[in-house]
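In practice, a research group might receive sequence data for several interacting partners and want a quick structural hypothesis before committing to experiments. The following worked case mirrors that situation: the sequences arrive first, and a predicted assembly follows.
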Amino acid sequence: AQKVIQVWSTTSRQEGEKLTLDCSYKTSQVLYHLFWYKHLLSGEMVLLIRQMPSTIAIERSGRYSVVFQKSRKSISLVISTLQPDDSGKYFCALWEHPSNTDKVVFGTGTRLQVSP
Amino acid sequence: ETAVFQTPNYHVTQVGNEVSFNCKQTLGHDTMYWYKQDSKKLLKIMFSYNNKQLIVNETVPRRFSPQSSDKAHLNLRIKSVEPEDSAVYLCASSLNRGRSYEQYFGPGTRLTVL
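A structural hypothesis for the assembly, expressed as tokens:
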């Protein structure tokens, strides 16, 4: 069963709009971290947000924020004032602690296309 | 069911040894990648391989080398491991064709260097 679920595989918006990307996750651990990454066509993976259940630690601020609903096991990425450069693929990911693998589990990603 | 397969799941070795990690994708994708996941969960791209063109991140030490027999396979060899090589190595594949774009990650290989 998938641990990290991103329902939308692709979406498109106009420049200037606000976007919410949904992600739900499954875990029985008390301690875990959640991440949002942006994948660029160059292959680079940029860490946007790191979220812990009790606090918010934002790796990238500015136009990125999250709506974290711990009881629903949901973390949505919100991008305000979209720009064409925001186009790319966004991955939600989960790291559980303790973990004997230390591996981050990724969702399948949501592709965003922003039109001028 | 994952469509990007990595072996082994874990590997423990000693400094100076050679290791090799395998990655295979069954999605028909045309590009494959290797990433190193550090302790802060930052993903650093090491290599990408597309239609026999290799793109290397210049900060990757020369003891790391990718090996590809075809577009479905991209292995990673580390010639003489060092302690700082301990990390999770993630393989991924992607297909970018017109309006369609997919990318999937493998489950990762955890390397521990003693």
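Before designing any experiment, note the following. The interface with chain A takes residues 9-10, 31, 33, 35, 37, 41-43, 45, 48, 55, 88, 90, 96, 101, 103-105, 107-108, 110 of chain B (CB under 8 Å). The domain at 18-105 of chain B is CATH 2.60.40.10 (Immunoglobulin-like).
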